[in-house]
TrEMBL record:
Origin organism lineage: Bacteria, Pseudomonadati, Pseudomonadota, Gammaproteobacteria, Enterobacterales
Domain (AprE-like long alpha-helical hairpin): residue spans on this chain: 129-248
Highest taxon listed in the record's lineage: Bacteria
Coiled coil: 146-173
Keyword Coiled coil among UniProt keywords: yes
Transmembrane region(s): 9-27
Species, as recorded: Salmonella enterica (Salmonella choleraesuis)
Keywords from the named record: Coiled coil, Membrane, Transmembrane, Transmembrane helix
Alphabetized Gene3D superfamilies for the sequence: 2.40.50.100
Protein name, entry field: Cation transporter
Keyword Membrane listed: yes
Amino acid sequence: MNRRQSDHLMMIIISLTILIIILTYFIEINSVVHGQGVITTKDNAQLISLSKGGTIQDIYVAEGDTVKKGELLAKVVNLDLQKEYQRYRTQKGYLDKDVNEISFILDKENESGLITLDGTRSLSNKEVKANIELVHSQIRAKELKKTSLDSEISGLQEKLSSKEKELALLAEEINILSPLVKKGISPYTNFLNKKQAYIKVKSEINDIESSITLKKDDIELVVNDIEALNNELRLSLSKIISKNLQELEVVNST
């Protein structure tokens, strides 16, 4: 190889070297990196390891720059991370909405302290909505039973009032007949009939009073059932809110 050829070869090598340097400067960095997300000192240099792998899209620092904690050094694109972040955002939105809607329902109660169906139409959580509607239908059935028992008691009380008046009238007649029978003015059979009628009406009154007592006991049981259903529903909704808040805490810390 003569000197001219040697110089020509050297020129080609230098040109290729310059071209590689230029291409390295202008071509966008597009390499996949993996790391542990820590900064270590080695040979008087700060080595940055990423917590997640990804494709470097932009670099905002150069060798020798001084950086501060929290400063953006580079932009790394990771589709898996983006999908995970979007999933967290979606989950957070769902949990926030669920907590707000269920809290509104818990705060919305009638004069008896029972959870109503107000707000359930727009409830996003269909499972919770179905559960509330189911419990509400059960409570409604209990309330109808209580209304029926109240009506029966009202009818029995009217009957009782009538029987008590009848009993008072019989007692008055017996008091009038008693001295007349003793004097022989009135026959004893008439007095005896009144006495038997009095005993019969008195027994009927006792039966009516017993029926009223039993129905009042039934009403108390129904009321307790209604309160138990409402409290169970309230506890169930409160647990859902508590669970959602715990999940939100995890999502927010991610």
